[in-house]
Design goal:
Length: 337
Amino acid sequence: MPQDGPSARVARHRSDADAVDAARRRLATVFPAAAWPELEPDIAAIVRLKRERNAVVLAHNYQTPDIYHGVADIVGDSLALAREAARTDAAVIVLCGVHFMAETAKILNPDRTVLIPDPGAGCSLAASITAADVRLLRQRHPGVPVVVYVNTSAEVKAEADICCTSGNAERIVESLGAETVLFLPDEYLARWVAGRTRTRIISWHGHCEVHEQFTAVDIARVRRAHAGLEVIAHPECPPDVLAAADFVGSTQQMTDWVRTRRPARVLLLTECSMSDNVAAEVPDVELVRACSLCPHMKRIDLAKVRRSLETMGHAVTIDPEIAARARRSVARMLEVR
């Protein structure tokens, strides 16, 4: 699988029953057989509704396995989902992730219906900065290009020169050819990028409430308890964590690393459901659990996905002028390889 690439389930099932059976087989590595009777009604309804609505379900790596392995058509990190949202020909996109991800899908698909099963699924990092903050920073640093993390609102994206994700942040910064760049809003990702490029980075003070909880002390404790442990971390983690990790990468890069390296024992310093989802794909690898739950991602569950397709709620709307400006910064990001 290419770096930063999504995982697409495009098997052509002969019937809804085939699709439900395929979901049952995928989930058999995650849930006990006794759980299937409870999962099946929602999964069967979602499969039927996707066909009737000409809908596609996009799920982030932090979604629970029943969504990620059970009903999602496209799974991946924020960059992968952004790319697939731009490519889909479905009439309806159901985004199982947090609100900024659904906004990004709508920005790239202004004429399609984009649904988020729970509009309250927010993001501490996205909430850490506003469009007014970006405008003020531009005044203080005239002429300095602005890179904003995709984990931001549409209004913030509209104020940026270009967006980035953790998977392409270094390439995005270097593509600008600038001596100094404003990199917003994740402070720890900005420090990580600054240490890997020659560009002077001016950062913001935003943090992810999931990743900032990890510490180097945690890593040392878990290493003592598990001989031969490999530790991989997301660059939204604090600097002491990144320094103590064996590998640092985006959500997709972490997943690809485990798939490729197949370590005997690994600790993923990221959201809990990602460990669950990776474990289902690589049963020969022991996933040591010392994760952190995202309360916002967990607002979305299988029943809400079903209800979203039944009621066509909750539709994502963005002011057309803001969407047009944000589209330029997102499209520019997708052009950088």
